[in-house]
Design goal:
Aminopeptidase; Elongation Factor Tu (Ef-tu), domain 3; 2 domains; 26% strand
């Protein structure tokens, strides 16, 4: 199972605040951890953090997991001292009322709650219709606008309050599991590979602004110019009521990481992944994903420069884009073992041109 030191890192990382475009705190936690075993660690102008092993090797392998998370941003402070906000990433408005949040102000972290009109005061039609985000506000306990502006300002980012917990032996719950769990796997794969003799250079990247359009991986992949790229993100489970297996396949927590087959996935690299999983007896789940292309960092990695051989590895996730996402540590461990096994076996002379033996 995952080591205690790694679990300590996971807890600190998940509890860090990193709304898209404002990932500094999460980057700092990630960077500090990578400094313990990487040959080089840097954070670029976008906020991506890159850890490197065996940097002088000409054949480059890139791992990407995004550590930005969905959140909010303040747009107005009312006379009553209430804070109005816009979404930052794909927000499900049904989950928003009653959320405990942290405003990341230049003056410090300010706790608040997202409020709306009480149910008792709603007309019947309003009760049957989900409220719009514009009809909600953040209450930080300010007495009026002047009082509020002593603590926060327009433009301040807002994160969901830290809430990491381990459920039972294997399952973990947190806000921002999408996709700090992927960035965690990047870090742990680098740590495992740092103990091996490598024939290739390995670049592990915690990317930013994925939730706003795959922005961080676009710039970091252009800089690195890898031969091979692995994106690690979350995928939908179907082990819940009313989540359709006929559209998404049979995906369960604890049954292994998901291996994808879509236009974003190089078929030669996919065969290597599956052969390694079989050789190492790593349980995996097959998925065709819910779209033909796009949606994860894989898509932008693949299209960088003259093209990159890419593969997406997904970690099954319940309640995606909510405050209480749940993943299984057995799937996380399987992904780390699979990536470590594949990359450690690279000679640096591989080619990934489909249809050419």
């Amino acid at each position: 199972m995952i080591q205690m030191s790694a679990m300590k890192f996971m807890k600190e990382f998940m509890n860090s605040s990193g709304p898209s475009g404002f990932e500094e705190e999460s980057a700092a936690v990630f960077r500090q951890y990578l400094n313990g075993f990487c040959d080089e660690v840097k954070t670029d102008v976008m906020g991506n953090t890159i850890g490197v092993l065996n940097p002088d090797a000409p054949f480059k392998v890139m791992l990407a997991g995004h550590y930005d998370e969905i959140g909010f941003q303040l747009v107005h402070v009312s006379d009553e001292g209430l804070l109005y906000f816009r979404p930052n990433g794909g927000i499900d408005k049904l989950n928003v009322p009653g959320t405990e949040v942290i405003v990341l102000s230049a003056k410090g972290k300010v706790p608040g709650v997202i409020g709306k009109k009480p149910i008792h005061l709603l007309k019947q039609k309003e009760r049957d219709t989900p409220p719009e985000l514009s009809d909600m506000w953040i209450d930080i306990g300010a007495e009026d606008k002047e009082d509020a502006l002593k603590m926060v300002n327009v433009g301040d980012p807002v994160a969901v309050k830290a809430n990491f917990q381990q459920f039972g032996k294997y399952r973990v719950m947190s806000k921002g599991m999408d996709d700090k769990v992927g960035a965690f796997i990047v870090a742990e794969t680098l740590r495992a590979l740092s103990k091996q003799q490598l024939n290739v250079a390995v670049y592990g990247v915690g990317t930013v602004q994925e939730e706003l359009g795959l922005r961080g991986v676009t710039t970091s992949c252009f800089e690195i110019a890898p031969n091979v790229g692995f994106a690690i993100d979350v995928g939908f489970t179907t082990d819940l009521p009313d989540v359709p297996s006929k559209l998404l396949g049979d995906i369960k927590l604890g049954a292994g990481p998901e291996l994808n087959r879509s236009a974003d996935n190089n078929p030669v690299l996919g065969k290597k992944l599956r052969a390694t999983a079989t050789k190492l007896k790593i349980k995996c789940q097959e998925t065709a994903a819910h779209r033909a292309s796009g949606g994860t960092d894989t898509a932008q990695m693949q299209l960088t420069r003259a093209g990159v051989a890419t593969a997406l590895i997904s970690i099954p996730n319940r309640y995606m884009h909510s405050q209480v996402e749940i993943c299984d540590l057995r799937d996380v461990e399987g992904a780390i073992k699979l990536l470590t096994g594949v990359i450690a076996a690279f000679t640096g002379k591989e080619h990934f041109i489909p249809g050419i033996d």
